[in-house]
Every structure is written in C-alpha cells, then in structure tokens.
Amino acid sequence: MKKVWISLFAVSIIIAGCSKDVAQQEEEPVHEDIEQVENEQEQQEEEPVENEEVVEKIKDDVASGESEQEKETSNKETNKSDEQKQPLTEDGAVQLLKEHLRVEYDETIHVLVDREEDGKYVLQVFEVIDDGQNSHTATLGWYTVDKNTGEIRSIM
After folding, report:
1. What is the pLDDT of residue 82?
2. How far apart are CA 111 and CA 80, in angstroms?
3. Each residue's pLDDT tens digit in the chain (156 positions)?
4. Which residues contact 105 (CB under 8 A, 6 or more apart)?
5. How far is it, in rounded angstroms, from Cα 94 to Cα 107?
6. Phi-psi category of 118—alpha, beta or left, where left has phi over 0 and alpha has psi -120 to 50?
7. Of 121, 80, 126, 71, nearest to 100 (Cα)?
C-alpha cells in the first residue's frame, strides 16, 4: 500500500510540473484551427440519402435509357482517351455505383458484386430487413458496371 501512495504522489508531482498555470496559458491557435477544419468537414459531408430516395433513383434509372452516370462516363472517356486505363476492380465498381446512387454514407444500403460476365461486374443493391426475430434482404436493384469504361446500366 505504501508503494501505491508513493507512486501516486510521484505521478501527481510529474503532472503538476509538466502542466502550465492556467493564468499563464495563452490561447493556442492550433485548437482553433482544428475546430475550423472540423466545421468545414461537417459542412462538406453529404447527408445520407433516405431509402425512399434511393428507390426512386433506381426506378428512374430503370425507366430512362441512359443514366446521368452513363453520360458522365462518356464525357470522361472522351477526355481520357489518350491515357492508358486500368480495368476497374470489384471494389472500384462498388464505390462507383454507390456514388452514382448517392448511398456512399448510407449504412443501410448494401452493394455487392454478384458475378462478372462479358467484361462487366453484375452488382446487387439491397437492404437487410430485420424484424428482431427474422431477417431477410430486399433487393432494390441490379446493375452492371463495365470494367473498362465504368459505364453503369440498370438491368432490373
């Protein structure tokens, strides 16, 4: 017990010797900079898209022939025609589709690569429905992502 008291006394002396007197402390701009950066990051972060909005986006993709992503992809292809392109990875295809559907930050929506066929990844977009006792998946859509071009098409 004596050793514990001596240890606590030594630690308190060290802490007291290392800390500044509150009256002598100057405001450190580092804390203000950190708070400013955090505020900027909070402003830049997108809010998660509601599930109903995701479903509507998927329905719109199915109804329209060419999606916004396909238009953007064709523009990017024109601009990058001189560059050597690396084929898209499965993770890259998942991220591209999440960005397209605006569900990057929505943890309730899942995007998985189901298979690869004809140089395209086939991806399933779904959510897990859990009622406490049972759970199941609810498919929101099926998409293909071209490995070489990044072109996204709804196949549902």
Report:
1. 42
2. 27
3. 767 667 777 667 777 666 555 555 555 455 555 666 565 655 555 444 456 777 777 767 766 655 555 555 555 555 554 445 789 999 999 999 999 999 988 888 999 999 999 999 999 999 999 888 898 999 999 999 999 999 999 997
4. 45, 46, 47, 48
5. 14
6. left
7. 71
Q: Which residues of 86-121 are buried (b: 16+ CB within 10 A; e: fewer)?
A: eebeeeebbebbbebbbbeebeebbbebeeeeeebb
Run of H or E residues at 30: helix 29-44
Domain 49-154 has CATH 3.40.50: no
State both tokens at 128: 């897990």
Mutual angle of helices 68-79 and 90-101, in 10-degree steps: 130
Check residue 145 and give its pLDDT: 95
What's the CA gap between 71 and 99, in Å, rounded? 14
Locate 77 and state its tokens. Answer: 């292809």
